[in-house]
Specification:
globular; four-stranded antiparallel β-sheet; Rossmann fold
């Protein structure tokens, strides 16, 4: 469904290329896969999701969606852009970046209406009810709590009924009940899902395949999520675990500890 072929990316620094995030990264994600993207703060998880969503483009190599190159020229073509924007959606870490309509109802209905979908109102009602947003449909998105904004942003994406969901720290602001609902909804669906998270205890629930990035954006691991989570040396190399020294009975010991971080990438 989505393929990264030997891509490199540098964030621009004025007119010159800036710091390299990726250099020669290759990945293939098959339809229906549930993938967890793990890595420490600053390793490039958010950047990788933006590359997959066609919001930014690699400085070398190629991203392909369903076999078609994901390039500026392709997204300038109306038919492909319409199809891609409905089928591939990205949930940002900060939902405020996604919300701009006067009411929650307008927000959820914006995508379906822009795409001319005939059942836009039905989609709004369905996903508002699923995420317990029906009482807030006439509220202004900016007036909501962080968790409510996150749920609105999720409803906006799910209302498009996409085939590929790219979720950047989706559980960061959600209450436990909504997180449970989200996990069940994603795992029971036929959709392809790629989720970035620092929450190691949730990783095994979010997917069966793990992609672990090193601090410099290198691919450290691509395989079963349970194998990744049990590899303390791997987690330490990825800076998802650290060695903590402490004293027992006058003797100094060093142990590796893994943590469930919820930092900003």
């Amino acid at each position: 469904m989505i393929e990264l072929d030997n891509i490199s990316y540098r964030w621009p620094d004025g007119d010159a290329p800036g710091r390299a995030v990726f250099d020669g990264l290759s990945l293939k994600i098959a339809p229906g896969e549930k993938v967890v993207l793990l890595g420490a703060n600053g390793c490039g998880k958010s950047t990788l999701l933006k590359l997959m969503n066609g919001l930014i483009f690699p400085t070398a190599g190629q991203v392909r969606y369903a076999g078609q190159a994901l390039e500026k020229s392709a997204l300038a073509e109306r038919r492909f852009a319409r199809r891609f924007r409905q089928e591939c959606v990205l949930l940002f870490q900060h939902p405020e970046a996604m919300l701009f309509n006067p009411t929650v109802k307008d927000e959820i209905g914006y995508g379906p209406l822009r795409l001319g979908l005939p059942d836009a109102a039905t989609r709004v009602a369905r996903w508002a009810a699923a995420l317990e947003l029906t009482p807030l449909l006439d509220a202004a998105p900016w007036s909501l709590s962080g968790g409510e904004k996150q749920k609105v942003a999720l409803a906006c994406m799910l209302a498009l009924e996409p085939q590929l969901l790219l979720l950047d720290e989706p559980a960061a602001s959600l209450d436990p009940a909504t997180v449970g609902w989200l996990v069940d909804t994603l795992l029971e669906s036929d959709q392809t899902v790629i989720v970035s998270t620092h929450n190691l205890s949730m990783a095994a629930e979010l997917g069966s395949r793990a992609i672990v990035l090193g601090p410099d954006g290198t691919l450290l691991f691509d395989g079963p999520v349970k194998m990744a989570l049990s590899g303390m040396a791997l987690l330490e190399k990825a800076r998802l675990a650290h060695r903590h020294r402490h004293r027992h009975g006058g003797v100094m010991h060093a142990h590796v500890h893994a943590h469930d971080w919820e930092n900003i990438d």
